Automatic annotation (TrEMBL):
Organism (species): Secundilactobacillus collinoides
Alphabetized GO MF terms: peroxiredoxin activity
Annotated Carboxymuconolactone decarboxylase-like domain residues: 17-101
Name of this chain's protein: 4-carboxymuconolactone decarboxylase
């Protein structure tokens, strides 16, 4: 079962309350919790892939979530290696830097 997400409310609740609600309750509450349709592990692989191709800061947070959702170091390395040819070498280098730190233990 997916962990209850509060990042939206914690970070934007006062500034953008509707966005925070949609983030926490719809995206993470309804979409991510549909584990009977797709596992959190697989959702994490897809999400990290998408964020890596975009080169956005949320990649780090989602790599950490991916690790919590059971994505192994070897799976993450393979994901980044595969995407390096599609998303670009510099994005792969940046992603490896994050992954190396996140999976250091």
């Amino acid at each position: 079962m997916a962990k209850k997400q509060t990042a939206g409310r914690d970070n934007l609740g006062d500034f953008a309350p509707k966005f925070a609600e949609l983030n926490d309750d719809v995206l993470f509450g309804e979409v991510w919790s549909r584990e009977d349709k797709m596992s959190a592990h697989d959702r994490s692989l897809i999400t990290v892939s998408s964020l890596l191709t975009q080169g956005v800061p949320q990649l780090e947070a989602h790599m950490k979530i991916a690790k919590q959702n059971g994505v192994t170091k070897d799976e993450m390395v393979e994901l980044i290696t595969h995407l390096s040819f599609y998303a670009g070498w510099p994005k792969a280098w940046s992603a490896f830097t994050l992954a190396k730190e996140i999976y250091k233990d």
